[in-house]
Amino acid sequence: MKSRANRRSRWRKSAIGSGGVSLISMMDILVTLLLFLLKSYVSGEVMVPPAGVTLPTSTAQQDPASSLIVAIDHDAIRFGGERVASVSETLASNSPEIPGLTERLQGARATSAAAGGASPAQVVTIQGDRDVEYRLLRKVMFTLSRNGYDNVSLAVLRKA
Amino acid sequence: MSKRRGRRRTGAHVEVPDLEIMPMLNVFIAIIPLLLLSAAFVQISVIPTTLPTAGAPAVPAAAPPEAQALVVTVSVQPDAWQLDVAGAGSRRIERRGAAPTALEDALKALAAGHDGERRVRIVAGATTRYEDIIDVMDAARAAGMPDAALADGGEV
User: Fold this and answer.
1) For residue A104, which of A46, A75, A79, B40 is within the disulfide window of CB 3.0 to 4.6 Å?
2) Average pLDDT estimate for B92-120
3) Which of residues 90-129 of B touch A (CB under 8 A)?
């Protein structure tokens, strides 16, 4: 009699259990998500293009290194995320150099020098929108060159 | 009686412990946000380049034979690519209706007969789109000429 009661209680428990939250399904989802994230995990430099910049696609495979970032979109030229010049004013100007960018580059160089030690040649990565005109890109490059930043890379989206 | 006892022993209910998945779940929930923060869903690459030199000629003069360097100047025009090889003539490839690999094939053909150093100089116009320049760099890289440098077109 007692054993029958025990059996019934066990059956009731299992019936209740099957209707509860299924942790196994959640575990399956989490394991899949974990594997996907581990695959896309990046241990090195993570470069994120700023909003409003659509980078051109390329077959280049070289990973970005730690560098100063100059972003060019349809509206502004940004250095380290900070707006340094307007695109329309830069294009209207006859000068091949961009004064706002020059100022920031010199500031960055001074900061680097103040940090002490012989700093290696600083790398600059240009994140240009794919529709940017060459005359604008050239002014940015000229300004970089004029301020001693000759090591320049162009950021692109890797083609799948 | 003894028989009964024996049966009870063999048929005794053994409690199977449930798999404790909660600690594992907690670990997963801690790891996933960390990985989400450090994951890169958009793969960005870089193309090292040399800056255009002001005053340098867009198309260099014929190189001396001992230099053994193939220098191809690709002028990016709105409707065509103009290929100039130092001392070996030029070729124009219309972009409209051309195969996607037309430029790459032309550069490959030029590079095929040359074993020495091979370089590409890209001459872009003032209004040339940045993406068009990158496309020429890609074509040069695919043709085995990764040293593609920007040259001053003189009209900026």
Assistant:
1) A79
2) 82
3) 124-129
Nearest to A135 among B31, B138, B156 (CB): B156
The answer to whether the Cβ–Cβ distance between B21 and A23 falls below 8 Å is: yes
**Which residues from B are below 8 Å from A96, CB to CB?**
54, 156
Distance from CA of B65 to the nearest CA of A (A): 30
Model confidence over A100-154: pLDDT tens digits?
A: 999 999 888 888 778 765 555 678 999 999 999 999 999 999 999 888 888 899 9
Taking CB atoms and an 8 Å cutoff, what residues of chain A touch B41?
40
Question: Average per-residue pLDDT in chain B?
Answer: 77
pTM above 0.90, yes or no: no
ipTM computed for the complex: 0.73
User: CA quadruple A106, A111, A112, A116: dihedral positive or negative?
Assistant: positive
Backbone angles phi, psi at B35, to 5 degrees: -70, -35
DSSP lists the bridge partners of residue A86 as A76
Going by C-alpha positions, the residue among B84, B85, B73, B71 that lies closest to residue B117 is: B71
CB proximity list for A140: less than 8 A, separation 6 or greater: A70, A72, A77, A98, A101, A126, A128
Of B42, B49, B47, B32, the closest CA to residue A46 belongs to B42
